[in-house]
Design goal:
- 41% of the residues lie in helices and 17% in strands.
- It has eleven helices and ten strands.
- A hairpin with a 2-residue loop joins β3 and β4 (158-159).
- The longest helix is centred in the C-terminal third of the chain and has 30 residues, at 239-268.
């Protein structure tokens, strides 16, 4: 048998190009392609879906309990905050809150009339405190006594004496409470019950500049704080870096799983269409040629 001669380039039939990712997934439809990328089957969830679910659960576990929004009874996004720091044997608690919550303390010490807090939320503006009333609250002995009663620090079971320092504009800048303890600060117990007398649903979000964060609630108003970890940063990283790392890992895992699924689609070949006709151009051409040959034979 003589060797087969190759056809000239102008008489050669074009071959179907390799399927790209968009052509490989096009016959599936967007909803089937999404299900394929997530690894979902009718019988069970594949390991890819389980890994994505695990990553999402980890992210929610890290972020949701530390979300500041959970501390405000009215559902606001900025609940009261207590930032802790230590210098030698002195612990400083910086307390701040939105103006409506700070005004609620003014009602608690009988300097602001009832309804002042509601005026910040719903009005009217005439019920808001004047600059003179704000100065009266900020310089009052009642406000200092309130913070010394509702913010406490204990070292080895002994209460540390405190001194309150209220800002000139308490509604905007809050207050600081300094506690002088007998020994150098290592681990102390911090108790915050601010606004619990007005509404037990109030929570104070406690932070120290590291990943450490707690909620001072009416049910659990006291927490142990390790000042040495906050000072040296040992074993702690900023919360933003933790969230960013989790998101990056989730994105890399999702992309790797999608690429793996795409390779599986390419290995399976083209998807058959209606009446058994292949969507690939070469398959359709061969089917038509076989049909025309059978007609000629008849």
């Amino acid at each position: 048998m003589p060797p087969a001669r190759s056809l000239p380039w102008h008489r050669r039939r074009p071959t179907a190009p390799p399927l790209g990712w968009h052509r490989a997934l096009a016959p599936l439809g967007w909803h089937r392609a999404l299900a394929l990328a997530l690894g979902w089957t009718r019988r069970r969830a594949s390991p890819s879906l389980l890994l994505l679910a695990l990553t999402s659960t980890l992210l929610v576990t890290l972020v949701l309990p530390l979300s500041p929004a959970v501390g405000h009874p009215g559902g606001g996004m900025s609940p009261p905050h207590a930032r802790l720091s230590a210098d030698g044997n002195v612990v400083t608690v910086e307390w701040s809150a939105p103006p409506d919550d700070a005004a609620y303390i003014g009602e608690a010490v009988d300097i602001f009339p009832p309804g002042t807090m509601e005026a910040f939320l719903t009005g009217p503006d005439e019920a808001l405190p004047t600059d003179e009333e704000v100065r009266e609250l900020s310089t009052s002995a009642e406000l200092e006594a309130y913070f010394l009663e509702h913010v406490q620090v204990h070292q080895d079971g002994t209460r540390c004496p405190g001194e309150a320092e209220v800002a000139a504009d308490f509604l905007e800048d809050g207050a600081e409470v300094h506690f002088a303890c007998p020994d150098r600060i290592a681990e102390v117990d911090v108790r915050v019950t601010v606004l619990h007398d007005q509404d037990p649903r109030y929570d104070t979000f406690g932070v120290d500049g590291t990943v450490w964060a707690v909620l001072f609630t009416a049910a659990q108003p006291e927490h142990r704080w390790d000042a040495t970890a906050a000072a040296t940063g040992s074993g702690t990283i900023p919360l933003s870096l933790v969230v960013a790392a989790v998101l990056l890992v989730a994105a890399l895992v999702a992309w790797w799983l999608f690429a793996r699924r795409l390779r599986q689609v390419r290995r399976r070949g083209p998807t058959p269409g209606p009446a058994g006709v292949h969507r690939q151009a070469g398959g359709v051409r061969r089917r038509r040629r076989a049909t025309s040959t059978s007609v000629r034979r008849v």
